[in-house]
Amino acid sequence: MSTTVRPTTSVTATARNVPLQIAALIAAGLAFAIYPILRGSAVETGFSAAELYARPAWLLAHCLGMAGFIASSWALLSVDRLAGRLAFGGTLLVLPYYGAEAFGLNAIGRLAIETNDPSGVAAADMFRFQPVAMTAFAAGLLLLAAAGVRLLFLLRHRPALLRVGLAVTGLGLLTYLPQFFVPIEGRIIHGIVLGIGLVLLAGATANRQSPVH
Question: Which three-class secondary structure state does DSSP give residue 42?
C-alpha cells in the first residue's frame, strides 16, 4: 500500500489562479501608490475641508484604496496563505470605515458647498472618532500589520527579488497605521513604497520564484 506525501507549503496557489494573482498584485500596487496622491491634503475645517471632501478625486482616491486592500489581500495568498488570510481579515474591518470616508465625507463636502454652510463638516470627526468605528478600523490595520510581520518572517533563504518584495511589502503593511499620523508627503511616499513592494512580489511570482515554501 503506497502513501502519498503531501508537501507542506505556506501557499497553495493553483496554476489557474497565478496569472490573476500577479495582475491583482500589480493592480493593488498601483492603487496604493495613486491613492494618497489623489486624496490631497488641506486644513480639514470649514470650507477648506468641504472643498477637499467634495472633489471627485477624493472619492476616486478612497475607492482606489479600498480596491488596493481587496486585491492585495486575495493576491497575497499566492505568496503566503497565512499572510493572505490576515490581510483579508484586516480588509473586512477597514472597508466600512473607508466607505464612509469615501462616500459620506464626499456628500458632506458637496452639501456644504451647495448650501454655503460648512458647519456640517464637523461630522467628519464625529465619525472618525466614533468608538466602534475607530476600534474596528484600528483592529483591521493591526491585522494588516500582522500580515506584514508574517511576510518579514519569510525572508530567509529566498531568491533576491522575492526577498526584496517581501521586505518592502511587509514593512509597508506593518506601518500602514502609523502613516496616518504623518504629513501628506510621508503618506505619498508610503503608498509608493508599498506599491513597489507589491509589484516586486508580482515579478517574483511571474518569475516562478514564488510561492514561498
Answer: coil
Q: What gap in Å lies between CA 37 and CA 6, rounded to an integer?
A: 46
Q: How far apart are CA 60 and CA 133, in angstroms?
A: 22
Is it true that the peptide bond before 211 is cis, omega within 30 degrees of 0? yes
Domain boundaries, the chain: 18-206
The dihedral over CA atoms of 91, 93, 97, 99, expressed in degrees to the nearest 10, equals 50
State the SS3 of 147-175: HHHHHHHCCCCCCHHHHHHHHHHHHHHHC
Neighbours of 204 (CB within 10 A): 26
| List of residues 6+ apart from 29 with CB closer than 8 A | 68, 194, 195, 196, 197, 198, 199, 202
- Alpha-carbon dihedral 71, 77, 81, 86, rounded to 10 degrees: -10
Q: How far apart are CA 155 and CA 140, in angstroms?
A: 24
Residue 80, sorted as left (phi over 0), alpha (psi -120 to 50) or beta, turns out to be: beta
Give the predicted TM-score (pTM) of the model: 0.87
For 56-92, how does the pLDDT look when each residue is reduced to its tens digit (9 = 90+)? 999 999 999 999 999 999 999 888 999 999 999 999 9
